[in-house]
Design goal:
Order of helices and strands: EHEHEHEEHEEEEEHEEEEEH
Strand order of the largest sheet: 2-1-3-4-5
Mean pLDDT: 90
Radius of gyration: 20 Å
Helix content: 25-40%
Number of strands: 15
Number of helices: 6
Largest sheet: 5 strands, parallel
Distance between the termini: 29 Å
Strand content: 25-35%
Structural class: alpha/beta
Low-confidence stretches: none
Length: 232
Amino acid sequence: MAYQVAICDDSPKDAEFVLQILSSWASERNVSIRAEVFPSAESFLFRYAEEKAFDILLLDIEMGAMDGVTMAKRVRRDNEAVQIVFITGYSDYIAEGYDVAALHYLMKPVNREKLFTVLDRALEKRKQEQRCLNLELSGEMVRIPFYEIRYLDVRQNYVTVHAKADYTVKRTLGEFEKELDDRFFRVGRAMILNLKYIQRVTKAEVRLSDGTVLPLPRGAYEPLNRAIIAHT
């Protein structure tokens, strides 16, 4: 599989330098990539409208009419899996990166070893995002990416997986727990939460980033908070 990487920078010299490092990284790590260079946010978005299967974005922030952060916000609207790395000569925008779950900021001029390290992290996270939960529903197999799953809950003998849609199957919660990875945490007997979606926790309830509020079982507050801290 070839990973698709976009370099977006209005400085041809800077873009070429990053491309050279990226190519060296791919060669040394024996990773197959398809890299494309874009001179503006607008040119990337035009391409992105046709092809959304980008795995890593290496973005300058200060560009012409549209800056890299604004562009990243547009991409994040429908793509939670792509790994975003900002490469910039300015440190003023770092706080804004939290809005798009940026993997990292690198300051110009780019350091080869630091970019190698960030690309290693991006590749590992991208591999994690490729993991899927397979459900058999009405005679067909449905694949749900782990990153789309907000939580699972059980009623009687049926578990509902809450993702972009809700999927209900006759299985035990324990069976799902064995299939999921460490971003998921079991809360009591009836629920498994995706830690990355948790926005707020009280002793009585959990609020998710989409506004969903779920009751928290007695005694679950401390273990859940420890899990959140360990996963951060």
